[in-house]
Amino acid sequence: MKVKTILISQPDPGDKRTPYHALAEKWNLKIDYRPFIQVEPVAGKILRKKRLNILDHTAVILTSRNAVDHFFRVVEELKIELPTTMKYYCMNEGVSLYIQKYTVLRKRKMFFGKGREPEFLEMLKKHTKEKFLFPCSDIRKDSIPNFLTENGFDYTEAIMYRTVNADLSDLADVYYDIIVFFSPADIKSLFDNFSDFEQNKTRIAGWGKTTNMAISEKELVNNIPAPTPDAPSMVAAIDNYLQIANK
Question: Of 73, 94, 149, 199, which has the highest C-beta tally within 10 A?
Fold first, then answer.
């Protein structure tokens, strides 16, 4: 069956040109964006009651823009003045550049990986004397805290934001040829909103191993898995699929 419509379970990028725009033009597709999950802040006063003291730490691990936003939000809510000696360890360069939205940093206070978690963890091994703060969501992978614990790091995990389901009730009677999922939380939101969801003729595109596992657990079929050797991005995976489905 040919594909005409795709739903991306992420926020609309607005007027910014993205690879999905090029994909839509190439195949004459209608592509809509709708986040299946949303982030809610944990108030600074709640973290204070839990005896979190940011200034007890010498370094912060930041894995995403959400983590950056909520770390600095909490700093502002608690009226904390961060010392110039505070160090920032970022998953990739994009996150490190985003920090400059909030503060001016010297290069010696900034460390970042190459985008892949194994390289980031190897980098942390060189800095075992730091006392790390790990701002995160209530839904996160275990790999970083497990690594820190197993390697004897001094660290504090602080849940500064929570991931909750978005209200998708207006999509109840809307059909898409492909729905694109990027996390297990997206799958959870789908079934929390529509407990009787059946895949039928809808094709599913799922990003990453954990998303694929969540899809399988719900007895759905991941028709367009990514990344793969032939499709390092979701756009490439969908494009490969369309070369067969829409030929």
Answer: 73
92 neighbors 114 (Cβ within 8 angstroms): yes
Q: What is the CATH number of domain 40-163?
A: 3.40.50.10090
Helix (H), strand (E), coil (C) string for 125-170 = HHHCCCEEEEEEECCCCCHHHHHHHHCCCEEEEEEEEEEEECCCHH
**Helix/strand/coil percentages in the chain, nearest 5:** 40, 25, 40
List C-alpha distances in Å: 205 to 23, 91, 144, 179, 225. Answer: 15, 25, 27, 6, 6
Tell me whether the CATH fold assigned to 5-36+167-245 matches the one assigned to 40-163. Answer: yes
Q: Give the start-to-end residue ranges of the domains of the chain.
A: 5-36+167-245, 40-163
Say yes or no: domain 5-36+167-245 is CATH 3.90.220.20.
Answer: no
Going residue by residue through the chain, which has 247 residues, state the pLDDT in tens, using 9 for 90 and above. 899 999 999 989 887 788 999 999 999 999 999 999 999 999 999 999 999 999 999 999 999 999 999 999 999 999 999 998 999 999 988 888 899 899 877 666 888 887 788 899 999 999 999 999 999 999 888 999 999 999 999 999 999 999 999 999 999 999 999 999 999 999 999 999 999 999 999 999 999 999 999 999 999 999 999 999 999 999 999 999 999 999 8
Q: Which residues of 19-56 are buried (b: 16+ CB within 10 A; e: fewer)?
A: ebeebeeebebebebbbbbeeeebebeebeeeebebee
